[in-house]
Amino acid sequence: MSTGNAMGHFLNEIEKFDDQQAGTQPAWVGTLREFAAERFDQLGFPSTKHEEWRWTNISSVSQGHFAYSAQPANLDEPEILRSALRSALGEVSGPRVVLVNGSFSPALSDLGANIKGLRLLSLAEALEESDPRVEAHLCRYANSNELAFAALNTAFLKDGAVIEIDESACIDAPICIVSLISASKKSDLSLASYPRLLILAGSNSRATVVESTINLGEAESFLNTVSEVVVDEGASLTHVRLQNTNRQNLQVSTLQARLAEQSRYALTTFSLGGALTRNDLTVKLAGPEASCEVNGLCLLQQKQHVDNNVIVDHAVPECTSSQIFKAVLDDESRSIFSGKVIVQPDAQKTFAEQSNRSLLLSDRAESDSRPQLEIYADDVKCSHGATTGSLNEEALFYLRSRGISPETARVLLTEAFAREIADNIELESLREHVLQLLREKLGEDAVEAVA
Amino acid sequence: MLEIKDVHATVGGSEILNGLSLTVNPGEVHAIMGPNGSGKSTLSNVITGRDGYEVTQGSLSFEGKNLLEMPPEIRAREGIFLSFQYPVEIPGVNNTYFLKAALNAKREHHGLEALDAIDFLDLAKEKRELVELDEKLANRNVNEGFSGGEKKRNEIFQMAVLEPKLAILDEVDSGLDIDALRVIAKGINSLRSPERSMILITHYQRLLDYIQPDFIHVLSEGRIVRSGGKELALELEEKGYSWLEKEPAA
Ligand SMILES: Nc1ncnc2c1ncn2[C@@H]1O[C@H](COP(=O)(O)OP(=O)(O)OP(=O)(O)O)[C@@H](O)[C@H]1O
Ligand SMILES: [Mg+2]
Questions:
Q1: pTM greater than the 0.80 cutoff
Q2: Domain residues of chain A, as ranges?
């Protein structure tokens, strides 16, 4: 098999990266990287023989010639970057970290230094000064020991964003993390980037984090992200992720969240772009009465492929979790949803619900749903449901009988299906931005249909 | 205005209309009565162009244009409106937003400028009052959670906004309480004009007391078996349909 060669390429890349970092990072960071590199080497890329990867073939990643680039393109074109920023965030405004190919961009960022209770900084800086909170939490949750892509990301541990929210702080403005991928057209090698995000929400704090990822241009790229989220007692954290990369982008993102007693975490992922996207989302309910919502919407066309692999781990009693994933699938696109709920032996009075609904706009599109319940306690309420359907013909005719074109009617009905997830967003500017992105993508389709 | 000649139509492979002819001139109100399953709603679906209703023989024209060559939305923009017997609920689609899109699609078809939000809201308010439709209802999702009577009110509200040349009202009186029937009938009557024609499908004489038709037709097994004036309805009320079914087509 050619896996050996593929591993060889990535291992070479890691070695080159390691040489570049020599002496620039504190020792503990080097140790983390070394360990991760070794684990990545041992684990290798997952194949479709792995149960967790059955539906998603990542050979386009493993066989790709992706190269880590320390020198991002477009950095000398501030106007282009600024307009990219606008398309990433719409009217959403707040303190922000902008990463270009995973590297912090001081010029485009605004760290909101005057916002009380917030410390927002680049990971590179946090590592350099060995920020004690960062050192205490980094790499503690995302499992480099078992997850190859988390290990690969950690092997390139260098930059990204850190959000520290003080105890009892209430941050009104959304904290934005923008990832711009800007691959040079000249290079033969496609670009790989490995940004990392650490969110530490102090006890009884309250905040909203918005992550938005887009490409500049149409070049190929591979994005491998790891996010670690720690929500302390009584804190409430809303986390919205917009994945809106170009159709040449391959993305594997791992997110691990840990929730303490009476905390609340609401995570919503909008997957609109990319050729292939895999999201591994794990939430551990580690303190009683914690609650989480893990929601997602995929809006896919052509051969786009999105695989959401969600694990909600009820480790203690009296926690609540809900997962709502929806997919709108056109052309030959495909969405996979695996939602696992684990209820540990102690976790009595667990309430867990899960729903997965797909709307197929084409008979070549495919939706796979894999709910899994692992229940080791007896006093629990768990429910799940999955449906797949097409647009309601009767509703389509009703709209057309009023003079509305079939293209517009389809957009209206599709948006109606999709917007449930967007309507959950409290922040108005963000909700409007998301709806606008949905309409743009659905509209594209309508325009194609007319042409 | 509407010319239906010897139409045969099939649904799901079975022939439901067999040799139906009907002419409606501008300003006329035609009532169509007939037993359950005789093909009344099928006729409305054929006129509005619903998928799955195949005309195998005969012709339909509207203002001299061949209807069979027009998709449903073009028929609507040309001025045909159907008030559905069972209006569908459309969660997530706002009633006002959808109606504005519909009106502007029609205006564009006729080379008129689109109405802006403010002008549309003024128009919608005026028409809403005509059928006494609650503002909150009008702004909800299309028919979602509406009662049977509210759905019918919403149909007539849409008709008032879209100002069709030909309105087909399929059992607009079913599910209405007596007061609601009076309000809706008043609304419909106010929309009568020398240019606007209507086809009223109903089972009950009562509606025809409120909205006086020029002609009454009886549909049975997919064809019109009897046509007459207002007095025909009274006769039907008294005798039922069975005496007609044996007669040859009118
Ligand atoms: N999709 C379909 N496939 C097969 N048969 C159909 C279909 N739709 C309607 N029919 C049949 O066509 C016939 C006429 O139905 P239609 O709805 O036109 O009757 P109607 O006169 O409107 O009755 P009602 O007074 O009950 O509303 C019925 O026998 C019905 O079962
Ligand atoms: Mg009927």
A1: yes
A2: 8-287, 393-451
